[in-house]
Amino acid sequence: MVAGVNLTSGKREIDMSSPLHLIKEKELEISGRVLATRQQAEEIVAEARRKAVEVKRVAEEEGRRLAEGEKASGLSELNLQIEKLMHDAEVEVDSLKARAAEHQGEAVSVVVDVVTRA
Fold first, then answer.
1. Residues whose CB is less than 8 angstroms from the CB of residue 20 and which lie 6 or more positions away in sequence, other chains included
2. 11: Cβ–Cβ under 8 A, 6 or more apart, which residues?
3. Does any domain span residue 12?
């Protein structure tokens, strides 16, 4: 046999121990591993993308929830400030009414003087 050819029959025979055959087997084995690794990597990437979408959804939801909480908190604080301003205004109005009542007699005397002089 020379280079995988049987000299007596002229037919090509595969020599399982030839370096070319061993190299070809190794190539096939490595190709299979590469393909399996590529598929595994694609699955990992697909799972990572799914997780990223979920993380983004949760983050957006949490952001909306926090924003609504801040909005509600801000409105509560604003309402408290409005109530305080209204109370302060009522106190000032009452104070002005009291001062006006104290000076009402004097005001009437001034008006009467002005009207009677004319």
1. 4
2. 5
3. no
Backbone angles phi, psi at 36, to 5 degrees: -60, -40
Q: In terms of residues, how long is the chain?
A: 118
pLDDT digits (tens, 9 = 90+) for 99-117: 988 888 888 888 888 888 8
In a domain, 104, yes or no: yes
* Tokens read off for 66: 């926090």
CB contact at 8 A, 4 and 14: yes
CB 21 within 8 A of CB 15: yes
DSSP letter string over 20-64?
HHHHHHHHHHHHHHHHHHHHHHHHHHHHHHHHHHHHHHHHHHHHH
pLDDT of residue 9: 54
Domain coverage including residue 76:
43-117
Domains held by the chain: number: 1
Q: State pLDDT tens for residues 74-98.
A: 999 999 999 999 999 999 999 999 9
